[in-house]
Design goal:
8% strand, four-stranded parallel β-sheet, three-stranded antiparallel β-sheet
């Protein structure tokens, strides 16, 4: 490894160990290499030529949830996530990434047609091979252990995504653009629909970004900067051409790509840099839009008889942690459901998803997630709301494994329920 920019970033680490005190993964691993300090030391060794085993380096760098807790706690403000993503990309460039990831990141995720085809194929596979598991959040499927999926459950995939359900010409133009994201289009289209319909209550014209590429985060965290850059460039070009006044994101992880990671892919001298800044400056989360547009203030009073404290809120690591947007979501909930909302135990604990981490180490991911569920329900929470697609995927899986009556929802679904009382 010879990336001088990476060397400059790692040089800010004082090896103080604060990262170990907040690391989500350390209680599972009990090893120095699991925390930021250990990974940075490993990168330094690789950069200096003291560790040439790039396969081991790749494995160590991949063993991270990228929850950002270490970065937010660091007294030196070391850019841990940028270091890890640059390190992953540097190693991947030299030894490659698995063929299945190349196909998914390079062919499927950048293409709306590719994502449609993938959902259709996966939906058929569910019906053929998996066992039905009813849950409070809808039907899930559990694949046989012979598939090597360690009891993983997945939500029932729809035959049609949210964007495909729009009428011809519907939501094609507008002052406000909804970037619905892959998961809320193809896996949970009800969330996409709830986001769109509730945003329409603002009285503003809402355009749905129909031909979007994936935000690029899955490729980026896997070291596939080429595929991630392709997604970023296509999205920036198309959004800039549409000239929306705002771009609203129901998913905090997609927002992260546009507000922060975009500039790692499109640096100062890139020909799209000016357009990327223009787009990024207009991006905001769903709750902020709902508050500023006046929709929340116009919600009817919650009905009497709701169970006090039944609904909690899970803080997505980047939306609440990196962007500090937890207060906005809670304000929306207080107006939408009233006293049914209460602070949830362990609200700020990572759910354990970590994107591709969940794929590479599902047993660890599920242990962290099950602990999260146990702490949350111990305080009386029966409905967990949030605003991140990965968190919803993870927590619905964990609920199906541990307590099928527990319901996991997006805050837009609760807002739509409130709007229906008008």
């Amino acid at each position: 490894m010879r990336d001088e920019e990476l060397r400059d970033l790692t040089g800010a680490c004082a090896k103080c160990g604060t990262c170990r005190t907040v690391c989500t993964l350390y209680p599972e691993r009990k090893a120095e290499i699991s925390v930021a300090r250990g990974k940075i030391a490993l990168i330094d060794a690789a950069l200096d030529g003291r560790d040439g085993n790039l396969d081991a380096v790749q494995e160590a760098l991949a063993d991270c949830l990228l929850c950002g807790r270490c970065e937010r706690a660091c007294p030196n403000q070391v850019l841990v996530e940028e270091i890890l993503m640059k390190g992953r990309a540097e190693v991947a460039q030299r030894i490659g990434i698995p063929a299945w990831k190349q196909f998914v990141f390079g062919k499927v995720l950048p293409s709306p047609k590719g994502r449609d085809a993938a959902r259709t194929a996966a939906s058929a596979a569910q019906r053929l091979f998996a066992k039905k598991i009813p849950t409070g959040s809808g039907l899930h499927y559990r694949f046989p252990e012979a598939f090597g999926l360690s009891g993983r459950t997945v939500p029932k995939l729809p035959r049609k995504g949210f964007i495909a359900s729009l009428a011809p010409g519907e939501a094609s133009t507008g002052d406000v653009m909804l970037f619905v994201g892959c998961v809320f289009d193809h896996v949970f289209p009800k969330v996409g629909r709830a986001s769109y319909e509730s945003m329409k209550a603002s009285g503003k014209s809402i355009a749905v970004f129909r031909d979007a590429a994936c935000c690029g985060l899955p490729a980026m965290v896997s070291g596939d900067r080429e595929s991630s850059l392709r997604c970023a460039e296509e999205n920036v070009r198309r959004i800039r051409a549409a000239e929306p006044g705002k771009i609203v994101f129901p998913c905090g992880s997609c927002l992260l790509m546009f507000k922060r990671n975009l500039f790692s892919l499109i640096p100062e001298r890139h020909p799209l840099r000016e357009d990327a800044v223009w787009v990024s400056n207009r991006c905001e989360d769903y709750s902020t839009f709902m508050l500023e547009s006046g929709v929340v203030a116009s919600l009817p009073d919650p009905p009497e008889g709701e169970k006090v404290g039944e609904i909690g809120y899970h803080d997505p690591c980047h939306l609440s942690g990196t962007f500090g947007k937890g207060a906005e979501a809670r304000q929306v909930l207080r107006e939408a459901v009233g006293p049914a909302f209460a602070e949830m135990k362990g609200a700020d604990l990572c759910c354990g998803y970590g994107g591709t981490f969940n794929v590479r180490d599902y047993p660890t991911s599920s242990r962290i997630g099950e602990t999260k569920m146990s702490i949350a329900t111990s305080g009386g929470t029966r409905i967990i709301s949030t605003a991140c697609s990965g968190c919803i995927l993870q927590m619905r899986d964990m609920a199906a494994r541990t307590d099928s009556s527990l319901k996991i929802v997006h805050i837009a679904e609760l807002v739509m329920a409130a709007l229906s009382r008008r």
